[in-house]
Amino acid sequence: MQPPFKKAAISAASQQIVGTVPAPVFVSRPRSQKIFKSGPFELTMVTPEHTYFSQLLAGLVRQIKELPDFSDDKRIGVMTDFGGEHPTATFYTYSFLFLAADKGGPFIKHVQALREKHKLLTPYSEFAYKSLKHGPRGRALPEYLDLVDNLIHGAIITVAIDKRIDTVFGPTKREAHAVLVEQLSTTQLGTWDGDAAEKALRVCHMLSAFWALLSSDNQELLWYSDNDRINEDGKKRSFSDLQKMFTHVLGLYAQHAPRNLRFGKSFEEKGFMEDLLSVPDLAAGVVHDLLQAQQTGADYIPGGNERIPLVKWTGEPSKFLSKIALQIVRTDDGGIGTGIVNIVPASEGSPRGKVGRA
Hints:
- By secondary structure, the protein is of the alpha/beta class.
- It has a single domain (41-357), classed as 2-Layer Sandwich (Nucleotidyltransferase, domain 5).
- The chain contains 9 helices and 10 strands.
- The protein has helices at 10-18, 52-61, 105-117, 135-151, 173-186, 194-214, 239-250, 273-296, 308-315, and strands at 36-38, 66-68, 75-83, 91-100, 154-162, 220-225, 261-265, 321-330, 336-345, 353-357.
- The strands form 2 sheets. An 8-stranded mixed sheet has the order 7-6-3-4-5-8-9-10.
- A hairpin with a 5-residue loop joins strand 8 (321-330) and strand 9 (336-345).
- Helix 1 packs across helix 5 (173-186) and helix 3 (105-117) packs antiparallel against helix 4 (135-151).
- The longest helix has 24 residues, at 273-296.
């Protein structure tokens, strides 16, 4: 197993975990009309002084073969959802839907018509992974996934991290979390407990890495997330602390900052944003269950026939949407392994799929 930090002790590397607020440096890049761009991809700002997690991310992105080309787009949106919090889960999953925000109108229009057709306008709720047994929502799912494939230009990226890996920021959870909590406090980024700090920084590092690969100069970014403990407003910290944390970490990965950066989270009164937020929710759930089934040797993922269209969709290519699943696992010898997750749908009528590491 490689050391959690290269050429840096925890105390010295902690600044690289949190980072500093980046100056808006804009770099010219030729425009392209292509829907996708091909790898290999590099996180060029990641050096040996970065955290071990940054090194893992740099290695993972080199294995990605294709990403969306947003070079002609002015606004990029990212919808996020995270899974694996329940005690029986064996992976934490972090799912990111990046999309060309200015091209989202047709998707919103057609999903509204789909909801009207299946009487899903009231109450207005997500196509959530845990609620696919609901009759009308389950019947609408194949059509919804077809709209996602044909009307969203972007990428759905899901990172699964083995729960046996206590921390990705230090040699032990105890040491790393003490450093994280102290650094976030002294940097005036809120008062966090160790587990929440670990989760928030994992998310910020991954989102920053993907932004560096997908974006170019003079683009706007909207980050919209489901309600979660890392973006809650409380007495000791608030949603704004997560926002500031992200801007600090962003400078570790990207030379260019968003021209305009906006944040949002799910409102009590649901609307069309939930139809976009449903995509990472579904991806986080199905990727977790497929990986857990592989790890435990189970023949089927939990649930019934209502999840068959989702398993099939996850493993099928799309005209406009890159579908990427990555995993970071504890190996039998105590080390850490990484790789692309290849998902191959099983035979028709079976709520399972084959997964493998590239």
